[in-house]
TrEMBL record:
This is 5-methyltetrahydropteroyltriglutamate--homocysteine S-methyltransferase. InterPro entries: Cbl-indep_Met_Synth_N, Cobalamin-indep_Met_synthase, Met_Synth_C/arc, UROD/MetE-like_sf. Its EC number is 2.1.1.14. Keywords: Amino-acid biosynthesis, Metal-binding, Methionine biosynthesis, Methyltransferase, Transferase, Zinc. L-homocysteine binds at residues 444-446, 612. Its cofactor is Zn(2+). Belongs to the vitamin-B12 independent methionine synthase family. Zn(2+) binds at residues 655, 657, 677, 737. HAMAP family: Meth_synth (MF_00172). The lineage of its organism: Eukaryota, Fungi, Dikarya, Ascomycota, Saccharomycotina. Pathway: Amino-acid biosynthesis; L-methionine biosynthesis via de novo pathway; L-methionine from L-homocysteine (MetE route): step 1/1. It comes from the Eukaryota.
Amino acid sequence: MVQSAVLGFPRIGPNRELKKATEAYWNGKTSAEDLLKVGKEIREQNWKLQKEAGVDIIASNDFSFYDQVLDLSVLFNVIPERYTKYQLPQLDVLFAMGRGLQRKATDSEPAVDVTALEMVKWFDSNYHYVRPTFGKNLSFKLNGQKPVDEFLEAKALGIQTRPVLVGPVSYLYLGKADKDNLELDPISLLDQLLPLYTEILQKLAAAGATEVQLDEPTLVLDLPANVQAAVKKAYTYFGQQSNLPKITLASYFGTVVPNLESLKNLPVSGFHFDFVRAPEQFNDVLAAIGQNQTLSVGIVDGRNIWKNNFAKSSSFVQQAIAKLGAERVIVATSSSLLHTPVDLENESKLDAELKNYFSFATQKLGEVVTIAKNVSGQDVSAALQANASAITARANSTFINDQTVKDRVSSIDAKMSTRAAPFPQRLAEQQPVFNLPLFPTTTIGSFPQTKDIRINRNKFNKGQLSAEEYEKFINSEIERVIRFQEEIDLDVLVHGEPERNDMVQYFGEQLKGYAFTTNGWVQSYGSRYVRPPIIVGDLSRPKAMSVKESVYAQSITKKHVKGMLTGPITCLRWSFPRDDIDQQTQAYQLALALRDEVNDLEAAGIKIIQVDEPAIREGLPLRAGAERSAYQVWAAEAFRVATSGVSNKTQIHSHFCYSDLDPNHIKALDADVVSIEFSKKDDANYIAEFKDYPNHIGLGLFDIHSPRVPSTQEFITKIETILKTYPAEKFWVNPDCGLKTRGWDETRESLTHMVEAAKYFRNQYQK
């Protein structure tokens, strides 16, 4: 009989229990024991849910209080010295590495002031991992045995699990050398790391684990020869060790074919591949699998929420069975279900027709089980019939098609995606309009979303506040933000976005073609969860979305206020997209809707308009080649379609964060000013890459995902480093990202220090 497998399950809890418990611990309201108890409860609930659904192979060690890669760094003692000197408990070390830590001395505890490690996107997803950082004084050793402890937890419940760890090659390759050790190639550390992997695997075997899952998602990247050789070396090494569980080597998010030679003849028990993202690799990987190795067929989408097509998936799996035999085939999720909401049954307000098209993590458990039963010859006819009806109903749904939108997309031409003049001419026309000083200061958009804002938004949504009462409240919050920015003397202001629940959801709720969940939360990083809206049909803008708030903000200040929008690629990437049309078409539909909004903002007197694209790098195909080149063209064009309808005097800004960015890709957007996350970068070469960028740029100076407050001198030091490479006349001063998740006290201090540093350099350059 064909088995079913799930590579990982969301760890946030069905009602965001982990977020609430974690933030309560950070705020000193609960103890570490309280937090650990919640984590244990979530793990138990997840394992039991999968067992009851009939899943054969259930993952353990897929839980984390912050990030699974960061967990490995702590486990293997890859902890930079700045975190070890404070003698913090291990849980606090984990959080300090993830989000930084700053606290004053008390009678019982010393003062702590430490920045977070760099955080970057997990491949092309909206999940962020904490990048391992390898310093000169690194000493690998095991700190505890988290994978073993969680395996034993499940075992005590009567549930046999398959522990999952990020594999050694991916762990090293996704890391970086510390700034004091830049000559290091992390892959060179493999020989030191493999004994620790062996030790933890042997401990798992001794605890009763018969199989482990080692994730090597880097196999879908363009790997240099030494990394491909490292894959062969690592798994050959494991094959030579004794008392290890069987190893399933798993890869996902793309095709492994260009790296397939490194997988041939490896002494592993089986492989997992993602056939949702890369079905074209099927014949190649089948030819490379050894006679006794299993194939885990990733056929249920771990990244999207659309109901699986059972007939199509079963047919695909049957091909594998025909080649390998049923006993060597496993039906699985394409990747961990970390990237999907927990349970569709929590959505009581979704349109019943639309709800029938969706499948969240809990429902996907039933999908892998049903497909496995179907290809094993068991009677699941009722499930197949219901599934076929849903697939047909969606294809014929009136929610989907809008001919007016299709016609408008087909009318896009080069003129629509080209500004009226090149940047130098635009700059010459903009300078007398804005008359900004050297080192102009601004923020990225959002200001703290206080408890009061959330309470009033909730009241309005429940009908407990009238539209007039809510607008009055929002205007009072906008005025508060404007007056604060004037007080600290920022140069270009924002309205603070108090009316917005999320930078994508807010606009999606006002666009035709979107659907929304109530509890469809997905972890983005740490305790930051998002509710991605769902693109269900052709997209259009029925009316203006942000003009009213921007116009009000501009009316109460003499300084320029930026209109704030989310760009077409970010709206696409941070939604669950349609899977029945290509993403390029969806991006152009969004671009046209946003073009209308940009033009309306300009017509209403807003002269600086920021269209954020933090996800544009995230959407880049993982491998070089025709698909990546095409994406770079159409993604940039979609941005320009949204922003090119304005006059030369209107200044277009954009923002990017937490991605390794290509200056040429940013240049293709032709924004007048861009801001880029920089606070966690410690490589001077990163600044040098932007030295010849022709337009203006703001390199983010402080980490808004950390409560830590940088001093004025720290800002000055950071700017001094930048100015060694980057010209002062093109440099803007700003934070890394929006301030939504921060408190007002730390926001006030950080921005005040940032403005003081900018003024220091203005004085220096005037002298």
